[in-house]
C-alpha cells in the first residue's frame, strides 16, 4: 500500500471517529436557547426570519423528521455535514493550491479545518454557521473546478453556475456569505483570464435564483431582516476600539486554537504574494470584520465564513501542520469532554456551556406544572430564547414569545384566557403576586426567573404559539 493511500485511509478513519464523537456530543448536551429558537422556526418553515435566513430551520426540520424532536434530531445534520464538507475541501486543494502537492495538500486543509474549535464544537451544535460552513466548502470545490486552466470556457460553465448556486445557498444560511461573494468578485475583476470568461457572469443568475426566497420574504416584510442585520454596520463606538479589536483577536485565537490561528494568519500573508484568488476570498471578510471592530463588537462566530478559505491558505506557507492539528484536536477534545461529563466542577459562571444549557428540564417542568395548577392555559416570555427553551423542554402548555419576532412567524394567533408570563429576574426588580424559579445544576443556581400570576396578561392577544 502506498504512503498516500495509507494517509488517506487514516484521515477518513479519523474523520469517522470525530463524527461519532460529535454525534455523541450532539445527543448528550442540552440545546442552547438559540438552538431551541431555531427549532421553533423549523416547526413553522418560511423563506426568511427576522434574525437569519431559513437554511438552519430547514436543516433542523430534516433532522427532526429523522430522529424526532430531540437534541440529536435538532443537531443531526451538523456532524454528518462535516464528512462531505471535508471531502469537498480535500478536492478543492487540488486546483486552488497549484503549488502544493496533492493529495497531501487536501488532507492537510481538511485536517486543519477539523482541528479548529469553531468546527469541532460548532459541528455538534445547530446554528446558521453550521450549514454556512458546509455550503462554503462545496462552493470552494466547484470554484476550483471552474478555474481549472485545463478546461475550456464552455466546459467550465456548469462549474461556474454551480458555484453561484452554492454561494446563494450559503447566503440562505447566513448573510456573511455575501463577503465571500464580494471577494470572488474582486478576484474576477482583477484577473484578466477570469474576467474575459463568460462563466463568472453567467453564475450571477444562479446566485440570484438561490438568494431569491430570502430577498422576496424581506421585500414582503418591509426588509425587516436586512435592516436588522445591516443596521449593525452603523454602530460606532471608537473609544472602545482597542477593546473590540482585542476581543476579536482573542476570540479567533480561541476558536481556531492558537497554533492553527498562527498558520491561518501566516497563510493569509503568503496568499497576498502567491495566490490572488484565495487572498481575495479571505481578505475582504477579514477587512470588513476588523473595520467593524473599530466601532463595535464582532461576535466570535462571525468570521466562521472565512475558516475553510484560511484552511487552504495556511498551506501556502509550506509549514508543517502536525503540531497545529494535534494541539487543535486535543483542545477540542478537552472542551467536548467538559461539555459532556463536566469532570471539572466549575461554577456556572465559569463554564459557558453549562451556563447556557444547564437546568432547563427541571426548571421548565416546574414552571409549567405551577402554571397549570393555577389554571393557566399558556406560557409567555419576553425573551425569545427563554420562550423557545420552555417550548422545547415541556409539552404541558403552549408557549409564545411576546417580542416582534413572533409577529413575523406564520403561526395561528392564540387568545389565552389565562397566561403565565415568565421573565428573567433582575437586580432591584420585585414583582407582587409572582413566584421565583431558578435553573440549577448541582444545587447551584445558574439564573432565576420571575413567574407572574395567570392574571398578569389576561386577555392579551398573543402573536402565536410555538
Q: Would you write up a description of this structure?
A:
With 466 residues, the protein is of the alpha/beta class. Helix content is 61%, strand content 7%. It has a 5-stranded mixed β-sheet, with helices on one face. Helix 6 packs parallel to helix 18 (322-341) and helix 15 crosses helix 17 (307-313). The radius of gyration is 24 Å and the shape is globular.
In short:
This protein has 466 residues and is an alpha/beta fold.
Please provide the ordered H/E string of secondary-structure elements: HHHHHHHHHHHHHHHHHHHHEHEHEEEEE
Beta-strand content bin: 5-15%
Q: Overall mean pLDDT score?
A: 90
Radius of gyration (CA) equals 24 Å
Estimate the helix proportion, in percent: 55-70%
- What are the segments in which pLDDT stays under 50 over at least 5 consecutive residues? none
Order of the strands making up the biggest sheet? 2-1-4-6-5
End-to-end Cα distance? 56 Å
Q: What summary fits the major beta sheet?
A: 5 strands, mixed
Keywords:
single chain; 466 residues; two-stranded antiparallel sheet; 61% helix
How is this fold's topology laid out?
Layout: H1 3-28, H2 33-42, H3 55-67, H4 71-75, H5 77-96, H6 104-115, H7 117-120, H8 129-146, H9 153-171, H10 177-189, H11 192-195, H12 199-220, H13 224-230, H14 241-256, H15 258-274, H16 276-293, H17 307-313, H18 322-341, H19 352-357, H20 360-373, E1 378-381, H21 384-393, E2 399-401, H22 404-407, E3 414-415, E4 419-424, E5 434-441, E6 444-452, E7 461-462
Parallel strand pairs: 1-2, 1-4
Antiparallel strand pairs: 3-7, 4-6, 5-6
Helix pairs in contact: 1-5, 1-6, 2-3, 2-21, 5-6, 5-8, 6-17, 6-18, 8-9, 9-10, 9-12, 10-16, 14-15, 15-16, 15-17, 15-18, 16-17
Amino acid at each position: 500500500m502506498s504512503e498516500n493511500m495509507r494517509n488517506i485511509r487514516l484521515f477518513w478513519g479519523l474523520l469517522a471517529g470525530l463524527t461519532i464523537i460529535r454525534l455523541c456530543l450532539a445527543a448528550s448536551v442540552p440545546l442552547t436557547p438559540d438552538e431551541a429558537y431555531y427549532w421553533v422556526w423549523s416547526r413553522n418553515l418560511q423563506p426568511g426570519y427576522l434574525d437569519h435566513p431559513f437554511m438552519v430551520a430547514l436543516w433542523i426540520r430534516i433532522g427532526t423528521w429523522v430522529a424526532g424532536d430531540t437534541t440529536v434530531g435538532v443537531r443531526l445534520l451538523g456532524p454528518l455535514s462535516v464528512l462531505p464538507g471535508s471531502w469537498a475541501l480535500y478536492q478543492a486543494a487540488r486546483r486552488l493550491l497549484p503549488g502544493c502537492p496533492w493529495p497531501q495538500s487536501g488532507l492537510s486543509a481538511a485536517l486543519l479545518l477539523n482541528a479548529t474549535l469553531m468546527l469541532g464544537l460548532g459541528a455538534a451544535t445547530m446554528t446558521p454557521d453550521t450549514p454556512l460552513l458546509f455550503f462554503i466548502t462545496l462552493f470552494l470545490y466547484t470554484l476550483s473546478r471552474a478555474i481549472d486552466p485545463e478546461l475550456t470556457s464552455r466546459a467550465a460553465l456548469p462549474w461556474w453556475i454551480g458555484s453561484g448556486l452554492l454561494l446563494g445557498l450559503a447566503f440562505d444560511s447566513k448573510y456573511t456569505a455575501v463577503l465571500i461573494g464580494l471577494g470572488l468578485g474582486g478576484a474576477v475583476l482583477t484577473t484578466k483570464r477570469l474576467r474575459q470568461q463568460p462563466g463568472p457572469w453567467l453564475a450571477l443568475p444562479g446566485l440570484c435564483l438561490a438568494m431569491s426566497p430570502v430577498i422576496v420574504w424581506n421585500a414582503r416584510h418591509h426588509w425587516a431582516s436586512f435592516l436588522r442585520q445591516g443596521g449593525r454596520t452603523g454602530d460606532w463606538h471608537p473609544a472602545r476600539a482597542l477593546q473590540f479589536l482585542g476581543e476579536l483577536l482573542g476570540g479567533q485565537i480561541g476558536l481556531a486554537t492558537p497554533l492553527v490561528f498562527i498558520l491561518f494568519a501566516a497563510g493569509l500573508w503568503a496568499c497576498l504574494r502567491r495566490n490572488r484568488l484565495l487572498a481575495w476570498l479571505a481578505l475582504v471578510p477579514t477587512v470588513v470584520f476588523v473595520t467593524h471592530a473599530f466601532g463595535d463588537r464582532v461576535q466570535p462566530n462571525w468570521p466562521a465564513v472565512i475558516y475553510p478559505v484560511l484552511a487552504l491558505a495556511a498551506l501556502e506557507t509550506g509549514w508543517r501542520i502536525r503540531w497545529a492539528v494535534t494541539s487543535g484536536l486535543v483542545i477540542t477534545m478537552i472542551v467536548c469532554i467538559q461539555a459532556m461529563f463536566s469532570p471539572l466542577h466549575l461554577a456556572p459562571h465559569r463554564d459557558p456551556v453549562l451556563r447556557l444549557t444547564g437546568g432547563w428540564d427541571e426548571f421548565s417542568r416546574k414552571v409549567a406544572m405551577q402554571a397549570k395548577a393555577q389554571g393557566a392555559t399558556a406560557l409567555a416570555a419576553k425573551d425569545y430564547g427563554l420562550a423557545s427553551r420552555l417550548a422545547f423542554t415541556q409539552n404541558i402548555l403552549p408557549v409564545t414569545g411576546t417580542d416582534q419576532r413572533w409577529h413575523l412567524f406564520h403561526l395561528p394567533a392564540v387568545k389565552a384566557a389565562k397566561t403565565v408570563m415568565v421573565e428573567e429576574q433582575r437586580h432591584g426588580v420585585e414583582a407582587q403576586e409572582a413566584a421565583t424559579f431558578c435553573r440549577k445544576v448541582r444545587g447551584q443556581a445558574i439564573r432565576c426567573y420571575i413567574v407572574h400570576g395567570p392574571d398578569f396578561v389576561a386577555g392579551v392577544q398573543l402573536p402565536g404559539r410555538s
